[in-house]
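Dear colleague,

As promised, here are the two records you asked about, laid out in our usual form so they can be pasted straight into your sheet.

NAME FIELD: protein one
SEQUENCE, THEN STRUCTURE:
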Amino acid sequence: MVTIIKKHPKSLKKLNIMNSNLNERSAGIDFLRCFSVLLVIASHYGLIVGLPLAGTHGVAIFFMVSGFCMSYSISGRNGKQFLIARFWRLIPILIVCATITELIEVIFPEIRPDRGQSFSNYIQNLLCLPTGNIACDALYGLLKGHAANYNWVDGAYWSLLVEIRFYILLWFFYYISKLSLPTIIIFVATLGLLSPFQWDSIYISKSNDFLMYLPFFAFGMSSSIYFQSKKNASLLMIYSLGVFVFISSIGVASISMSLNQNNILSYASCFAIYFSCMMFYRKGKNSFLSYIGIISYPLYLLHQDIGYILIATRDRMSLEIMASLTVLVIFILSAFVNAITQKYQTMIRSWLFKPV
């Protein structure tokens, strides 16, 4: 099991899945990111009503992509470097996107008053999300006797909380507990079995909105071993998929989505879409897909509330035309956010990857 992990840095050089260079990325990963974020946007803008796939299916696929990428990201780094790398990848862009969204909601409060958030909520998003709400929950627990309670600046931020908590869980298992990657995958998937119990706590915010997504992360991590060596990885993938089938058969609901016998096939298709794409296209590259893959994160953070506000101004214009114009605006904003943060992130990345 240890040898599997040690091979990852060499594979990472071949695959370059984490590189922001347009010429050094995986077409499979970038396609899945593009597909996922466009599926989410189309769903939120009302363009795919009645289709079997919706926005939450896109998020599920993205969680698998994240599991795949993080299994490489932990290799060749110590725990501090891993956390710093995740922080500088996510938080500067979050700050810029949240600020843009908050400004638009403040400037045009009459268009969609239901989307506006207070300045206090804005500050709590910036302070609490970077630690997966853990620090804020601890502070709130000491001062008020309950977990942090605030509204998202943008409704899409719920999945960012799930993502960051997965990073923290992975950090704990790999760097603190010193577990091998296959063992971590088993633990992560197994924790998903607890989701049907609707575990909730007044001391942990949104505690029932995390466990049910773990099989998706575990499947992505399993696939990283499968495509690297195939040694015992198929069993890990089958186990992760089995956990998903089990909790879906029982039925589990969270704040953001639910899994049950009625939708088990549609969400199972997410595994098929992910695996098929990675099987055939993971080693290719495409400059256009690479760029969209790079800006997919700010695109996701910016699209929902700003999009709702823009679409609400369409008057007699058709939904399809206004939604298309809105997507264009969000793309331009995302490119802007990426441009102003890229140089800063590149500087941090060069520091992180100095030989130790």
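NAME FIELD: protein two
SEQUENCE, THEN STRUCTURE:
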Amino acid sequence: MTNTKRTTQSRTQSTTQPDGVTTGYADVHDARLYYEMAGTGETVVFLHAGIADRRMWDTQFYNFAKDYQVLRYDIRGYGNSTVGEAAYVHAQDLYLLLRALDIETATLVGCSLGGTTALDFALEQPTIIKALVLVNAVPSGFDYTGAMPPTLQAFVGACQTGNLAQAAELATQLWLDGPQRRPDQVDADLRAQVRTMIGEVLATGAVDFTGAHAAAQPALDRLAEITVPTLVIVGAQDDESIQRAGDLLVDRIPAADWTKIERTAHLPSLERPDAFDRILFDFLQRIEEIDETISREDSLATGLGGAVPRKVVAPRPEDQ
């Protein structure tokens, strides 16, 4: 079944597949964003990393559709989405996509660039956000210190010379293996899967590390304005700068807590999906408990727009 819907600023065309997944395109200004949606209930939006596309959330998309309405999409130039000609901001694209799909509130789960977009969006559209899950995320405006790592230098060089096969391997070393592990210490099949996905992403030419598509006002100096429950997830084998960014997010976001997933680097949802899903599901369940508490009692002065005590959202201890 194919449906077409038009709003003031965008048009969507969607098809419901036999497995119940809705696939479609949303026209956002001069670009077309491909999206997939499934399940019912509270909305959880998965935002992919800058060296991946929506497929990095394959496991989570189907697992969480059993209990929530889940949405994942390809940002401009990635996967099945087009780029367009005009300047754009990722957070604005997300806003228009949610508007087109009639989604009024959502929890955002963003990895890396997806986390940066989630932060920008939360600051620009605070009434839409129910909670944030930031996975190895860096706020826009974050200052990377020190010399560029040799592997990153080699990756940039490979991209500039058009050696995409080498660039995909180097990107896999940077963001899947991480700086603390050798390639032979990471599952070979997973490496091949991620390297293929990264290679396809690089081939589009859409990868951008300049921050050109972030919000005009960097999130770095505005983090204290984010008052929704926030969970920061960090891969134990990820780069030191990402660890530092995670510490900063927890320090500056009033209702934030963090957890570290051992034996993972930049893409923990792919490396250890079972551990990642347990952490995320537990957090989402506790957000529901908070909502129930707010509705039953007047013990908290504000609802989703107000800060929540850290002890309420702190990750429960578990073997990770």
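A couple of things worth noting about protein two: Confidence is low (pLDDT under 50) at residues 298-319. Residues 38 and 62 are 8 Å apart (CA to CA).

Best,
R.
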